[in-house]
Amino acid sequence: MATLRVPEAVPSPTQDCEKLRDAVQGLGTDEKAIIWILGHRNASQRKKIRETYQQLYNESLIDRLNSELSGDFRNAVILWTTDPPKRDAELAYEALKAKKKGMKQLQVIVEIACASSPNHLQEVRQAYCSLFDCSLEEDIVSAVSQPLRKILVAVASSYRYDKELVDMNVADSEAAKLHEAIKSNKLDQDDILLILSTRNFHQLRATFACYKQSFGNSIDQDIKSCGNGDLESLLRVIIKCIDTPEKHFAEVIGAAIIGFGTDEDSLTRAIVARAEIDTMKIRGEYFNIFKTNLDGAVTGDTSGDYKDFLMTLLGARI
Fold this sequence. Notes:
Blueprint: H1 13-24, H2 31-38, H3 43-57, H4 61-68, H5 71-81, H6 84-97, H7 103-114, H8 118-132, H9 136-143, H10 148-156, H11 168-183, H12 190-198, H13 201-215, H14 219-224, H15 230-243, H16 245-257, H17 264-274, H18 279-290, H19 294-301, H20 304-313
């Protein structure tokens, strides 16, 4: 359900690098060539391009792009071209080092921990240690106060089973445990953390479905009824990223676009992170939530090469 369009006949990494080299050398920069090449390559192809560019020209492609491009377009291209685990490690670091750490920052950690595969999360943790000489969990502990700290450490340090395995008896039992904790407003109870941070995503989706079937409301509705503080908000983001990540990212994009000004960082992060995963589903959810077309919303709120690059990742023919 990705929107990334990779051509059937892909040039060799060497050919791509030669065209990229031409695009960044001499007077001016050929932004259209950069968009056309990098915006139509998947993660493994981009990795080969980075490695080949380094071998051919003895310089980092990322560094060259950083020096040649500017603004939101540069940020988007560099985020897209960077190895995904390194990209997400850097995004997590920026979120944790931000002066203000509200839900906008903390949801970046949740997205990495709960809307990505277990293998990707493990690779992000390894990249984080290599880049910043400490663990992701250590920085969460030093940057985030309780009770949010306990929840974020639990989901960020998890390593879930990555296959579709569901036990309906466990789903029923754990739905009841979740309901009891929510009913008694003990949202940081160990039972909740254990369930949300250890069960595989398929098991959790079955548990959330059992919850609604058994108790009438969705788990999201019942947590919302407990209040609108940071604890409730964080748990709702975790559940949404596990249950319907496409809905979460549609809401992130909507919040970035709708209203006064544009939050380009959030818009870029959402499209770059999901273009190879589920942007087709995000497009459908965006229409369901906001009753307007995602592509039109993005083109209406962005411009120039930045707009063209995002729309390329969304599958438009630029």
